[in-house]
Amino acid sequence: MESALVKMTRSIMDCCICVTVILLLANSANVSGESPTTHSAPLNECPVKLHIDGEQGPSARISDCSSGKPVSLFTEGIAEEIEVKDNVLPALTPSLFSNVPPTINFVRPDQKVEELPQTIRDRLKYYASPSSPIAYYVSFSGFTQTQDVWEYTVFYGLPYQINMARDYLSVLPHQKFNHIPDSWALGCKDQLGRNLQRFKAKYGEEDYGIFPETFVLPEDKVALKRAWNSSNKHRTWLLKPPCAFGGRGIEVVQDWKKVPKKEHTVVQRYISNPLLVNGSKIDLRVYVHVTSINPLRIYVNPEGLVRISVEKYTMKDINNRAIHLTNKDINDKNSLYYVDEQLTEGNRRSLTWLWDHLKENYGVERQPIWDRIKDLVIKTVLSGEDTMQRSTQHFIRNRYSVHELFAFDILLDGNMKPWVMEVNVSPRFTTNVFTKLIDPLLTSMLNLAGIQIPAVDMLPNLKHSPETVPKNLLMDRRLWTQQLTEEEKEKHQTYTTITDQLQTTLSTILDTLTPDDMRMLIETVDENNRRGQFERMEYGIWKDGNQHQRLRYITDSLSGQDITIFSLTNGFNVIIKTKRRGYKF
């Protein structure tokens, strides 16, 4: 039986340096319905591997090109013979680039994965409740629970409270935290409403007419009264607490006297023509993973939930919340509420089911609606991006450390137009019911997050211990540095002050790459390769074909945004050319 080391050695001898990754990335980038870019690289070639020091050569961490199977990353010093069988997945996911450390591979419960050596498992800790939805997935990949906030590698829990972003200073550079500082800019209904109103005022109804008319009391009392009086009919509004969840405190009102003018309340116009399923109101829960806020990288899960109210829709009874709201906490009290594990019947169904339903009953295709939903997601995230980016820069030591899975609640009206109703920062999961949805969603999320093995000197409890894990498997601080050189600062300053001539900006930004640009490109390309079932959002693409239109909404760090936009189409070719010039990372 061959050892992993023998397999790796044979792979190195057999594989030539070539450009299959270009083809891989071209196919990976095809996430928005566009035709993929084609390349002439043959399918049986091996991926190019790039060394951080600028030297070219095959990596010891490479696929077995003859078999197409991943090769174990372990060497003799860290493990004895490890056989990678057909039904056992590798414990680590290699980078596409040499000298870039691997990430932990998370798998579904129906899959098998290699067991990591104890010396690695000792430093893989997660901080979460035992009932946390990720507890099973991380445990399966070698993590153990800890209640020590200095010891965890992965945190999965509630975000720090509003106006407490400073608490994120406690997140250590090697730790992965599942919230972005001040993500309440999206997660609180008052802040979300304010941000979307601000962008709508700046860019207009055509671009930002993606949410119902929204007011925040008591500040907007006069404006609300004016809007209320201008509606001769359909004077139906939703009252919402600013930052509650699960439908708590939401009321449907038609009487001005019932509006609490002096309380901090969100008032939102009721969408009076909702799409119905079997006579009941529905909304969509769409899962969005923001893996980085600077630069901004957004992924959307193509599968989600269709939430269906128990009661039949009518406007004759505005007091029955089970008619007008789809939240579980409101509907599951009704004996008619039930959930089918296959998500094809009952009050929770899959988006796949919905697309089939719309095609069969309305003759409506999925793609136009899905494109509008993705457009809505991008615009919504961009409305809160400046707040989250500013807080991240102030309170996070390492851009590696934070990511966030959001749940967008989206209503489809009778014209198939999507409206963003709210965004959840800590979506709840019923893992024992929605396994068909949750298993691939959460494993893809964890793999996208890119969790790396910390070096022993990064861990407060182990920092005085000798290092026993090979260096090439450990997190490399150089890849995550946030200290910019003068050259990098100058480039950032140049491109972040450009407010027009975006065509020129995009055509020149990759001409001369700084080390920070290269790190960003490597990070983005590797991340996209781990995306699983998620779709990467190309926010440089606009519905009218103008690739640069959406950049009008980006207010900060244009340099980083542009590098990210081009990374999958031009970035790899740029890296190859730069490397040939002897570029040093």
Automatic annotation (TrEMBL):
One of its GO terms (molecular function) is tubulin binding. InterPro entries: TTL/TTLL_fam (IPR004344). The keyword Ligase applies. It holds the Pfam family TTL. The keyword Hydrolase does not apply. GO terms for cellular component: ciliary basal body. GO terms for biological process: microtubule cytoskeleton organization. Residues 1-33 form the signal peptide. Keywords: ATP-binding, Ligase, Nucleotide-binding, Signal. This is Tubulin polyglutamylase TTLL4. It comes from Lingula anatina.
